[in-house]
Amino acid sequence: MAVTKELLQMDLYALLGIEEKAADKEVKKAYRQKALSCHPDKNPDNPRAAELFHQLSQALEVLTDAAARAAYDKVRKAKKQAAERTQKLDERRKKVKLDLEARERQAQAQGSEEEEDSRSTRTLEQEIERLREEGSRQLQEQQRLIREQIRQEHDQRLRGKAENTDDRGTPKLKLKWKCKMEDESKGGYSKDVLLQLLQKYGEVLNLVLSSKKAGMAVVEFATVKAAELAFQNEVGLASNPLKISWLEGQPQGMAGPSYPGLSKGSVLSERDYESLVMMRMRQAAERQQLTARMQQEDQEGQPT
To answer: Does 243 have pLDDT greater than 90?
Structure first.
């Protein structure tokens, strides 16, 4: 029986990280803690996690059933004693075992022990088969609790995401730049370029380029914080700067054009304008270097 052979090779107490005398309550608690981290629903692409979850389930079934646990403990104890005897054998005793009478006596003793071990193993096999046929109520209950906890964690993440989007809904920004309808380069701003510029501030849920008016797009962020950072810091390409304005979800008390450090109504002096242009050029150069480095890393990572 494949399951039984697998069980005989494992230390179920060590697998769950509990003592041999652990009560059922401790067994269930240890199972929930370990099984939750390797549940297949949380690790869909990790076959090792699914295998470990299956082993933990077997351990729970055996150790929460009195008869099956007693049979397992008996087999485990016999294996432990046999290992201790083997460990104590030294070269001197191995030579003594060459004596015919000693070997005969040991053979008789081992025959008795092997028979007892065989009976214990058969008992454990029978108990595991019984658990399989009856279905483990303990396992079903613990797995129900784990599914419930996973669902609660999922709901909490959704609630947290909803809170971050503010009561006014998901934040949206309007982007404008100079572009003629016949310009195939779209003024230097394709959807991929815009995403690359904006995603560093946070998760972008959607980005739509206007099909009726050149040089305009709408971006939807997952959080107000991400939209706020993009509004305050993004200037776009030095050769064709972006004009960013709020469309939806603007935080209270926040207004003005998307010039970092300048409030609405500020008048740009020649020196200020020069500094602003230089800052944009530096940012554009940094972005171009980053893009080139990322493309180089992508090419190096591709199989030849």
So the answer is: yes
